[in-house]
Amino acid sequence: MATRVGGVGPEWVWVNEVVRLIDRRLAAEDMSLSEFARRVGERHGLAAETVERRVRAARTSEGVMNVHTADRYLVLLDCHLRDLPCYRDAVDGVLPREHWPRRA
After folding, report:
1. What does pTM read for this prediction?
2. Dihedrals phi, psi of 5, to nearest 5 degrees
3. pLDDT band at 76 (very low <50, low <70, confident <90, very high)
């Protein structure tokens, strides 16, 4: 699973950007969170209830999410990490490294 473009990119992304993108795609595809959680669970060997709980918790979070976790969710919605402004700007050099999302 390639999550970094050219081997350079942040290890973390803003969780609110991930959740907004997930919610937009779910609405566009008229897919419930439960169905999405089931698909993620099947594809990655996770309990659907766990995935759904994590996404619901992420909706109220203001932290960061590991790029590998974000990528697992986004790929099932035909999205890419570059669809997240913080990741795209970091990889493209618009966002200086000192402003990349990072875990506190």
Report:
1. 0.84
2. -85, 120
3. confident
> Rounded to whole angstroms, what are the CA distances from 25 to 12, 41, 56?
21, 18, 15
Tell me if residue 5 falls in helix, strand or coil. Answer: strand
Per-residue CA distances from 19 to 3, 85, 87 (Å):
18, 13, 14
Tell the residue number behind the tokens 């969710």, with chain if given: 73
Cβ-Cβ contacts under 8 Å for 3 (sequence gap 6 or more):
9, 67, 68, 71, 81
Q: What is the pLDDT of residues 18-49, one digit of tens each?
A: 999 999 999 999 999 999 999 989 988 989 99
Q: How far apart are CA 93 and CA 71, in angstroms?
A: 20
